[in-house]
Fold this protein.
Amino acid sequence: MSDIQELKDFATQVRRDILRQVHKVNSGHPGGSLGCTEFFTALYKEVMHHNTSFDMDGKEEDLFFLSNGHISPVFYSVLARTGYFPVDELNTFRLIDSRLQGHPTTHEGLPGIRVASGSLGQGMSVAIGAAEAKKLNKDKHLVYSLHGDGELQEGQNWEAIMYAAANKIDNLIATVDLNGQQIDGSTETVLPMGNLKKKFEAFGWDVLEIEDGNDMEQVIDGLKEAKTHTGKGKPVCILMTTVMGNGVDFMMHTHAWHGKAPNDEQLEKALAQNPETLGDY
Amino acid sequence: MKKYTDTGKKDTRSGFGDGLTELGRKNPNVVALCADLVGSLKMQDFIDENPERFFQVGIAEANMIGIAAGLTIGGKIPFAGTFANFATGRVYDQIRQSVAYSGKNVKICASHSGVTLGEDGATHQILEDIGLMKMLPGMTVINTCDYNQTKAATIAIADHDGPVYLRFGRPKVANFTPEDQKFEIGKAVKLYGGNDVTIIATGHLVWEALQAAEKLSEKGISAEVINIHTIKPLDEDAIIKSVKKTGCVVTAEEHNFLGGLGESVARTLAENNPAPQEFVATQDTFGESGTPEQLMDKYGLNAEAIIKASEKVLSRK
């Protein structure tokens, strides 16, 4: 059990890592990454039972699948800072010959990544397959996944959502990052998806909500609560409301920073709002 | 010349089903998935014997490919079965990202490939799947010729670590390869030796190539017949060696001439031993409804077409 302040400090450092990664190569996706910083911190530091000595099969440990692969900066930072690979390697994000590809892949053998993602809508199916394998292997550990809200516009998700309920995939906790933004604008203007809670429930899922996905205590409590809902015959969904760009005032509440890097001046301003805690890479 | 004997017509999809059943008995990690086509894919025996290792996904092929990719994480060897059209074109990006790029040990098992699917028509008859699959880095592409070979291939690919596309078909066709054959991925099988022309065939066209070679022999033309069951990785050495000897080649496949076996052979020869080539294949067209025999005849995919192509290519030497 980590101290809450320790987790918050960790998250602050992760924010710095996100900003510095995308700034260096002037590309990448800071908005969604910043919004999910608490989620990744809570999951990898506090909730999941996982081995940083990476094994692809991941037997007898919890697994995580990132479906919205474009928020790779937060994933890479948290994997590095929890011990999957050297923190210095964050310097290579999106550079030629790097294991830290623009979107996460297994192809370069980066520890912690179990499937490529980036082309949206595929992660839930993969997570379900891994959850089915755990059941076959009599492995009681859980499978976690994260999905963007805009990503739910991809039809494959609804195939997976239907399958998971029908087949009682109750060792899966799928979290949806409700930041209300996508590339072309808000989800409400691009393609409103209606009441997602009712939709998941209508498909037969057990749905929980985290009202403030940028509040570390709420995220931890929400994830731990979700764990108590597993093993009861239903897949578990967490609808987690976050603010895109959280932690950097000028990046918040807008889709403008979905896939845009800060310039030198903006980086300085953003980093000043997130002082170094664990040491920059 | 020694003639090959049809031991009784059987469908290649039954070879897949029986191979899968045998695998289920000997390899506890083998699991199977299907998208509402269990009967067509002949998967019922596997399901009856291993209900816990079978996943019925319903009419949702994209989800099936993703679940198959996930099942490999935990050591399972998934065999995902549906019609070739729905196993490839419909789910190309899922295969590309979640299977091929991710290096997952998924076996994509595609029945009812080509025009011999028959009466259902062009919506269901894919003639582009070999091309789609062979272009994916790391994907092994296999198109078997008869029941025995399909069964042997199904069993063999479980031991290959990596994604495989296994293509077979619907109709009952001649069963002529040995029941006890050892299936070696990427290894061409020479069926007839010959000196005048090399006929390289895959899938249902292999039997037609044998019939063609026998008729050519009666005309005094000595044809070498090679069964290429593995289109990728291609047995380039066997192809080059044969064409160096004969000086010309006919390729035969139930697939578009764009992107199929013929183009793989042409590339190999262009790089190593340029030679005249004729393509027995569909000519950038969709299929249509009809019986398998009628369609093979109309689209020029039979022994007669191979004979004509052989005579033409000989004249170009």
